[in-house]
Amino acid sequence: MRDAVVVMAVPGAGAGGGKAGGGGAASAAPCAACKLLRRRCAAGCVFAPYFPPGEPHKFANVHKVFGASNVSKLLQEIPVQHRGDAVSSLVYEANARVRDPVYGCVGAISSLQQQVEALQAQLALAQAEMVRLKMSNDYILHRLKAARTGGGSSYTGSPSSMCSPKTAEPEAHCKATPELLDMVVDQPSMDDAHFWSY
């Protein structure tokens, strides 16, 4: 009699365990791709690792631009270690195509290239201005030293006059004359980098 009771109890426990197991399988949420496509998400679904259920818009744009079948074939042909990068590229291109249906990601790349070219042009202008200012400063320091020592100058023209025509006129005012020597302020505490004043 005791054995019969045990035998009757075991099937009841097995039925309960089967219900629990079935409930756990039913609670598994499908991936965003299978949910959008309204199909059953199998255990080996190629979309599941890259399109989680909480990001439905991620696969929606990819499916709209490339198509689910094309994406599935592409992922199956790519090694597993590279599929994550491929999905990231597909998502970026799909989002760019949705924002700009005409140019897509090419429009973003072109805009960035234009910004780079504009910044390079500004950098070239700044470097040219630095060179011009350095040549003008060196020329002024050389003529100032020549004026203080009373010697001649080996310069035949202003170096800055080659960069800007506006600086070619002060050449006549920089000759070492007695009047210029009287106007130079000679202070022992000042080095040669300071300018003389009238």
Automatic annotation (TrEMBL):
Give a Pfam family name.
LOB
Q: Check the record and name the InterPro entries matching this protein.
A: LOB (IPR004883)
Ranges where the record places region Disordered:
149-168
Give the organism the record lists: Miscanthus lutarioriparius
Q: Which residues form the LOB domain?
A: 29-130
Q: Where is the composition biased (Low complexity)?
A: 155-164
Protein name in UniProt: LOB domain-containing protein
Q: Which domain of life is it from?
A: Eukaryota
Family matches, as PROSITE patterns: LOB
| Keywords from the UniProt entry | Coiled coil
Family, as annotated: Belongs to the LOB domain-containing protein family.
Q: Coiled coil: which residue ranges?
A: 109-136
